What does this fold into?
Amino acid sequence: MNTQLQQEIRQLWCENLGCPTAEEADNYFVCGGTSISAIRLLSAIRDQLGVTLDYTELFEYQTLEALSRRITAALTAKEEAV
It folds into this structure.
């Protein structure tokens, strides 16, 4: 991950899980994520990145890479709608 957005997502992920680093293939739930922390992560994504994701999407996009792709796609769609 090398874009600014990807770095921001990684930072939110790490802050949420309390881990110093994260790899693209890391699975949120394997790394210690819980249903409660997932709600907090989704809230942080909404507040800081302006993307609202459904709770179930974190189960669909469990890796850092997949979640980053989903957020990027949501932001792109949002920009194209304007």
About this structure: The CA atoms of residues 1 and 50 lie 20 Å apart. The chain has a mean pLDDT of 94. The domain at 4-77 is CATH 1.10.1200.10 (Non-ribosomal Peptide Synthetase Peptidyl Carrier Protein; Chain A).
